[in-house]
Amino acid sequence: MGFILMTKETKTKETKESIQENNQTAGFYAVVRVRGSIGVRPKTEDTLKQLHLTRKNHCVLLTKTIQHSQMLKAVADLVTWGDVSSETMDALKKIDDHGVYRLNSPLKGFKGGTKTAFPRGALGYRREKINGLIKSMLH
Fold first, then answer.
1. Sign of the alpha-carbon dihedral angle for 91, 96, 101, 104
2. Which residues does 111 contact at the CB level (< 8 Å), separation at least 6?
3. pLDDT tens digits for the chain (139 residues)?
4. Backbone angles phi, psi at 109, to 5 degrees
5. Neighbour count for residue 60 (Cβ, 10 Å)
6. 3-state secondary structure 90-133
7. d(CA 10, CA 98)
8. 16 in Cβ contact with 55 (< 8 Å)
9. How far apart are CA 77 and CA 131, in angstroms?
């Protein structure tokens, strides 16, 4: 039985390489702000401003990076996000608002309310199902 000795340098090189590979092959997140700003902590509100999500029903496209993932986890109680398809990206670009898309409320409302996490509610990471939500908000 052999052991492989991994030094700190080889571990960091491997993680940096895997991060770069993930960033190169990664797509985009579509992020929609679901809840308003009443009762939101100032630090969380600053994070939303950095993401250009200043109002309800605003949508932005973000690249899949570690920094964006960390920011999304910090504001997960106020937004929903998922993996956006090329069709949805094209539909959003038709209503271009300089990177921030102002959408309508979804037809027939948010399923399950806006205070609980997906799949019961509207908040959090919803994978490919974000495309259906955005299409219902583009009416």
1. negative
2. 121, 122
3. 455 555 555 555 555 555 544 443 358 999 999 988 899 999 999 999 999 999 999 999 999 999 998 999 999 889 999 999 989 988 888 887 688 989 888 888 777 777 777 777 788 898 898 999 999 988 7
4. 75, 175
5. 21
6. HHHHCCCCCCEEECCCCCCCCCCCCCCECCCCCEEECHHHHHHH
7. 42
8. no
9. 20
Angle at 132 between CA 130 and CA 138, to 5 degrees: 100
Token output for 16: 């940096």
User: Token digits for 24?
Assistant: 């190169």
Please name the residue that has the structure tokens 């490919």: 128
DSSP assignment letter at 83: E
Residue with tokens 């999304």: 72
- Structure tokens that stand for 122 in this block: 């509207």
